[in-house]
Structures are given as C-alpha cells and as structure tokens.
Specification:
Structural class: alpha/beta
Distance between the termini: 10 Å
Number of helices: 10
Largest sheet: 7 strands, mixed
CATH class of the largest domain: Alpha Beta
CATH architecture of the largest domain: Alpha-Beta Complex
Helix content: 25-40%
Shape: globular
Length: 320
C-alpha cells in the first residue's frame, strides 16, 4: 500500500510517499481503507520534532481519517466489513491507503457525512468540545469569543456553542473566512488584523466583555484577550507558536482563569464523554464539518505548509 513515511524530523519535505506492507489485523483490531485523512496543526508539530511526545522513527503521520472497514479481527463486535467509519486515532497513521486501528478508535459515520467531512471530525470537534465544556464549563447565554473561527477547530466550536445556546463572537481575517464564520452561526465576526477589533468586541458586548475565549495563538493574543474578558472570565489556550511577555497582574484585575489544554491529556472518562457527544451531534445533524481544501496524498508537504502559513478556511484533508 502507499503511505506517507517520515524517517527524520524536520520540514514538510521529510514526508515521502512510499510503498509499505499492508498491516495485518489482530484479534481486536480493525483495518480501515482510508478515503480521506485529516491534516491538523499537531501533525506539523510532531513532524518537525518539536512536539513533547515524539513517535519512533520511521512513522506515518495522521490521527484523523475516515473510510470503509476492510477487515476485522475475530473479537471485533461493533463493526463489519463495509461499514463507513471515522477514526479517533490509529495504530499505524492515517496518511495512508489503509490504517490499522483498535476497535475503540473506530466510530460509525452517518451516511449524510462524506468521507472528506469525516476526516475532519475527531481532533477539531473533540478539541472544541473539551475546551468549551470540560475546561471552560460553558453555560447557555454566556458569550464566547472564538479566535481563528474559520478553521477546523473554530468551526467545530461555533457549532458546539450554537447548539448549547451561547452567544458567539468569532475572528477571521479573510472576507471568505468571515463569511463562513457567520454562515456557521456566529452572531458577530471581527477582523483580528484591524487595529480596533478589540474595541469593536467591547462595543457589541455593551462594554461588559466576553465570558469565555478560545485562544488558538496565545503568543500573539493572550495579553489582548484579557482586555475583552469580563470579570471571572475564562481563557482556554488551544494553540501557541512561541513565547510572549506577560503581566500576571492583568489576570488579577479580572479574577481571570487561564487554562492550558491538550486533547491528549483527557482522561478515559472525559474522552468517552467527548466521543459520545460527537456521535450524537453527527447523528442529530448539528455537527457538520466544513472541508476547505483537499490534496492528493503525495502532496502532504504542501498541505502542511498550507495549514500553518495560510489563512484558515475549513478542514484540510488528504485523499489517498
């Protein structure tokens, strides 16, 4: 089978398309023919070698994917060959024609959700759910500010927040992205490249500020976030690409809570709650992943450049 293989950490070009053996299925395992693989920022951090937990080399990247069950082990009970599924991780990586998974990593994909959409389910929707509900403890009628709202996690957060009855403010910088944010259900959208966007946020909240901020680029925004956070507000740091000079006193005047978050630190119980909520949202129809760009598998390097360097617009996927 064809798969992307990383033999040394580094720039996107270290990812090479190779012919590798198709995995053999164990008794409690599922082999999935990948129809689409999701590309996430965390994939780029791992590939670069800067992520705290590194896989053994060589490895195939990718945690998100969707496809069709190709083969099952004799102890597998929940799936049969031919089932449409999405993945919450795998044993062998999803940037490939096939991925070997534990049965617990495989989930039924409703017919109304395409494989490309299914490849954008797990990390974006699990991350957004954990940030909103398990960390920030969001409640109906609170106001949430979602930075980078036109990206995969941002869109997921809008859909979760809308279903939960929150007032939603989003940021994006392209006209296309701002339009998408409003189409997904945000009440207001702001251009975070404008000098006065913080003042605009305060104005639409009547000077009160926002209760919750989901922060995708903390090194650029964290101090600014505190300017628009209401007293006793909560900030959840989902992403950061550097360091910053920080004044702790800014948190004291607001009695603010700042949460760091990594999806992979979730307990087994928390992850089960997340996955159950995702399956419910997909089945009931209020979760609808948005695909931005699809690349052929051999262009994985370009996909990695795109997700870091370009303005966010939906989910980026690879097609084997």
């Amino acid at each position: 089978m064809k798969a992307i293989v990383v033999r040394k950490f580094g720039d996107p070009e270290v990812m090479k398309l190779e012919e590798v053996p198709k995995p053999e299925v164990g008794t409690s395992q599922v082999l999935v023919r990948i129809k689409a693989a999701g590309v996430n920022p965390v994939d780029t951090y791992i590939r670069s070698g800067f992520y705290p937990v590194k896989p053994d080399l060589p490895y195939t990247p990718g945690k998100d994917g969707a496809g069709v069950v190709e083969e099952i082990g004799e102890e597998v009970k929940k799936f049969k060959v031919g089932d449409r599924v999405f993945l919450s991780g795998s044993l062998t990586g999803t940037y490939a024609e096939f991925a070997l998974c534990q049965e617990t990593q495989v989930h039924h994909l409703p017919e109304r959700i395409s494989f490309e959409q299914g490849a954008g389910v797990f990390i974006p929707y699990a991350t957004a759910y954990r940030a909103l509900f398990q960390k920030a403890k969001a409640k109906p009628e609170e106001t949430v500010l979602i930075h980078g709202a036109s990206g995969g996690v941002g869109i997921a957060a809008i859909q979760w927040a809308k279903n939960a009855g929150l007032k939603i403010l989003g940021t994006a910088s392209s006209e296309e992205g701002k339009k998408l944010v409003l189409e997904q259900g945000a009440d207001f959208v702001f251009d975070h490249l404008k000098e006065n966007y913080l003042q605009e946020i305060l104005e639409v909240t009547g000077g009160v500020g926002v209760h919750i901020i989901l922060e995708m680029l903390a090194n650029a925004n964290l101090m600014k976030d505190l300017e628009v956070l209401t007293k006793h507000g909560r900030i959840v740091i989902i992403g950061s690409r550097g360091t910053l000079e920080f004044d702790p006193r800014a948190t004291m005047t607001k009695d603010a809570s700042i949460f760091g978050m990594s999806l992979f630190n979730a307990s087994e119980a928390d992850m089960q709650e997340i996955l159950s909520a995702i399956e419910k949202g997909l089945s009931e129809g209020f979760l609808n992943p948005v695909v931005g760009t699809a690349f052929p598998l051999e262009e994985a390097a370009e996909a990695h450049y795109r997700i870091i360097m370009k303005k966010a617009f939906g989910k980026i996927v690879l097609l084997p």
